[in-house]
Amino acid sequence: MKTRFRHGWVAAAAIVALAAPLGPALLGAKPDPGAPAYDAHGNLLQPQDYAWREWVHIGTPLTPNSLNPPVAPFPEFHNVYIRPSDLQHYAETGTFRDGTMLIKELASVGSTKALSGNGFFEGEFIGLEATVKDSRRFPGEPGNWAYFTFSHEKPPYPRIAKQQPTAACNACHQQGTQAGAAKDFVFVSYYPVLRAADR
Known about the structure:
By secondary structure, the protein is α+β, with helices and mostly antiparallel strands. It has two domains: 1-30; 32-197, CATH 3.50.70.20. 24% of the residues lie in helices and 23% in strands. Strand 5 and strand 6 form a beta hairpin. The relative contact order is 0.13.
């Protein structure tokens, strides 16, 4: 009996050892597509194959130079995307969970005329940025959000992005939260998809 018991534990341990390298799906955990990934130095890895373009597009703020003379701080289109699972969690709880990632792909202002009338229309992609909320990885950052810039140039974008200093990005989001324009450092008031999910 003792021998059979001991052999049973050995067999179980062997199964776990074989299953572990095969990933969480085999062990019963659901995979999380597009979850933030980092290299050994803490740099954020760019999602492969422009995957964010298949996520949920939550909005495209624009503050053009013509409305902010002589030069706007952010004159380009900001196409902002969120992972579907992160949006689902926000819709269910009203909070951004650990691991939430937002991608911002920048586009230049192209034509200001179209068959439908005058306006502002997107030109070319000119940059990629991201923000990630993670209380374990970024415990010292306000709201546990960290900000990353891959490039302010046309694609292809660099594979990795270094974390930006707190004052470079987080300070503005902190002011927005205090002013009521942002919720947990995300400018929810500018994104109708998030506003609708929060009702």
